[in-house]
Amino acid sequence: AGDGSGPVPGDGTDPPAPERVLFPPTFSVSEIKNKQRRHFMFLRWKQQQRKEKLALKKKRRKEREALGDKAPPKAIPKTIENQRVYDETTVDPNDEEVAFDEATDEFAPYFNRQTVPKILITTSDRPRGRTVRFCEQLATVLPNSHVYYRRGLALKRIIPQCIARDFTDLIVINEDRKIPNGLVLSHLPDGPTAHFRMSSVRLRKEIKRKGKEPTEHVPEVILNNFTTRLGHSIGRMFAALFPHDPQFIGRQVATFHNQRDYIFFRFHRYIFKSEKKVGIQELGPRFTLKLRSLQKGTFDSKFGEYEWIHKRREMDTSRRKFHL
């Protein structure tokens, strides 16, 4: 007030503004009845959590810089992946039994370079446009592959024709509501056959900052984290789709990365910018696979003998238990 009865704004006698506490210690966002208000307060709480986390990170970085060489080693963060439950079927590279199985399994002629992969890519009956484009782009990734569109022909009739024409693998892309949602991979002539659920399919035009169209060079193949006996078999199935002699001049690489039993496929082109820096461009397509079953022999949905079937209620009892 101007009569001297109180502090005048701006004269240095203003009382300090109280700190505004966003959330009391006992506050719970779930207590807010209004849905929009509850969502708004939750976003503010998440924003405050991020700020506190960044501030703590900066503080720790400054402390490490101040200590220099005396700084303690960085703590390894706990993740579901590195807290994985040990699987007794984990493959030891020096195991004689594993080496014998690899030398006598269905893929041995490929790894001994006695056979060259020849792949037939087909679809479910009467595919839609998106599935057709995905098959065409997948054929540019897999050398020596051919696309055939089914018109009511059963797989049991296709498989003998493939064997007669010296195809080594059959890939079937299934769809639901015009979206590719499944992949069947059958190794010919004696199997095995793997059935995958497919998700997160992205065609080339849907990938940001993509590179130019892939060339006809044979790509390199990277298989990550296929550590168990089952994962080893699946990894060998993927490896047998590509010729054994990659053409490094093409600088193209196909990656199958297994993480928490989800197999992420990416197709890149790389370039060496210097001795320490490498630039990569994604070429596409990309997709994610989840193994549903592994069947002995070729495709037989009624009388086939299964080596492994994913049973959710029995197998998914722990978030840290993985099978590949």
Automatic annotation (TrEMBL):
Region (Disordered): 1-28, 48-75
A cellular-component GO term for this protein: preribosome, large subunit precursor
Protein name per its UniProtKB record: Ribosome production factor 1
Bias kind Basic and acidic residues: ranges: 63-72
Pfam family for this entry, one: Brix
Biological function: May be required for ribosome biogenesis.
InterPro entries: Brix, IMP4/RPF1
Molecular-function annotations in GO: rRNA primary transcript binding
GO biological process annotation, one example: maturation of 5.8S rRNA
Domain named Brix: residues: 117-300
Major localization class: nucleus
PANTHER family: RIBOSOME PRODUCTION FACTOR 1, U3 SMALL NUCLEOLAR RIBONUCLEOPROTEIN PROTEIN IMP4
Domain of life, source organism: Eukaryota
Keyword rRNA processing in record: yes
Keywords noted in UniProt: Ribosome biogenesis, rRNA processing
Annotated compartments: Nucleus, Nucleolus
